[in-house]
């Protein structure tokens, strides 16, 4: 059974007095996870108030999971507590080896895209680069920055006009930003046009010019987490919670990182009957063609590609990409 978000809203309105998780319980776990992907939003980019050169974002359990529509509260609160315990032990396991093959998605001159910065998942950090050099020199500096940051696979270079921090505060005295991402975005994610009056209530709003996007054409496959065996993938279908035995729930995470899922699987509370997490499935959710979030789902029994059958949700336009399975070696 497929319920669109709109239909679900109507269903909830009809069931006055019934809690949201009661009305979604008519859905299977496979349907609920796709509905949750459709109703979450893990996209972002540098805000006009962010300072440059911050340490790149590390993968975390995503918090904006829109739990008014979908019951994801329990997995989230568990993730939050485990997040604190492993954060310091985070291991940058996923090193990209081929660092020079950048492809231009758009070069900053296309009128359809040049006036909007990226709003995409897996935002890492940004820096300010000189606006007195040529486009070619600036592009080289921006790509060198991406190459120097672990996990960077895409960069968005643009000028932000009307931001007092860039104009007066930062030492670079340049309005050209280079923002880094850990996933390859689509042109449809160039949606941030500025529009904030950063100089005060009656000032012109900030705006974006010359927005260009580059990405690594050949990113290496992720490193298999230690203590696990790579079992399948990449596929366009997630492990089905009804076909595979021992479904234990899921988390949304902010970057595509099997190592992160492995830590969450290890830290997950054992099932009273089935025992500890023995297998996880990681995949990227795409909503209406836009990469949106990353899911780890957990099972207390190992499985393989034969149960990876959940291809998404046609009604809510959710598709599954880069689905990989990993099995824990010991119990
Ligand atoms: C997602 O969240 C970002 C940051 O809060 C916001 O700017 C953007 O408009 C949101 N996108 C959607 C599709 O709601
Ligand atoms: C969460 O996602 C919603 C829906 O896209 C968005 O409107 C909201 O700004 C987001 N909240 C945060 C804290 O990012
Ligand atoms: C470069 O950026 C600075 C700071 O925003 C701005 O004052 C200056 O006009 C810009 N120069 C060019 C050539 O765009």
From TrEMBL:
<feature type="signal peptide">
    <location>
        <begin position="1"/>
        <end position="20"/>
    </location>
</feature>
<feature type="region of interest" description="Disordered">
    <location>
        <begin position="53"/>
        <end position="79"/>
    </location>
</feature>
<feature type="compositionally biased region" description="Low complexity">
    <location>
        <begin position="65"/>
        <end position="76"/>
    </location>
</feature>
<protein>
    <recommendedName>
        <fullName>Apple domain-containing protein</fullName>
    </recommendedName>
</protein>
<keyword id="KW-0732">Signal</keyword>
């Amino acid at each position: 059974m497929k319920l669109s978000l709109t239909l679900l809203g109507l269903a909830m309105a009809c069931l006055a007095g019934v809690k949201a998780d009661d009305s979604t319980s008519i859905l299977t776990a496979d349907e609920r996870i796709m509905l949750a992907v459709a109703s979450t939003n893990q996209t972002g980019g540098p805000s006009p108030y962010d300072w440059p050169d911050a340490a790149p974002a590390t993968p975390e359990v995503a918090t904006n999971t829109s739990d008014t529509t979908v019951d994801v509260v329990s997995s989230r609160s568990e993730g939050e507590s485990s997040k604190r315990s492993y954060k310091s032990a985070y291991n940058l396991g996923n090193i990209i080896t081929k660092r020079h093959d950048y492809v231009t998605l758009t070069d900053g001159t296309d009128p359809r895209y040049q006036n909007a910065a990226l709003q995409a998942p897996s935002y890492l950090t940004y820096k300010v680069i000189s606006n007195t050099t040529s486009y070619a020199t600036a592009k080289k500096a921006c790509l060198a920055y991406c190459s120097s940051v672990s996990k960077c696979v895409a960069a968005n270079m643009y000028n932000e006009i009307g931001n007092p921090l860039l104009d007066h505060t930062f030492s670079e005295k340049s309005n050209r930003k280079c923002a880094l991402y850990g996933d390859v975005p689509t042109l449809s994610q160039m949606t941030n046009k500025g529009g904030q009056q950063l100089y005060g209530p009656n000032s012109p709003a900030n705006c974006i010019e010359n927005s260009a996007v580059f990405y690594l054409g050949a990113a290496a496959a992720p490193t298999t987490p230690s203590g696990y065996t790579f079992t399948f993938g990449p596929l366009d279908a997630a492990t089905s919670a009804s076909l595979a035995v021992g479904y234990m729930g899921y988390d949304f995470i902010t970057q595509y990182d099997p190592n992160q899922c492995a830590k969450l699987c290890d830290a997950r509370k054992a099932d009273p009957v089935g025992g500890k997490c023995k297998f996880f499935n990681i995949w990227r959710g795409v909503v209406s063609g836009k990469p949106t979030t990353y899911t780890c789902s957990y099972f207390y029994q190992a499985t393989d590609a034969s149960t990876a059958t959940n291809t998404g949700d046609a009604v809510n336009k959710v598709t599954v990409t880069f689905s990989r399975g990993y099995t824990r070696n010991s119990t």
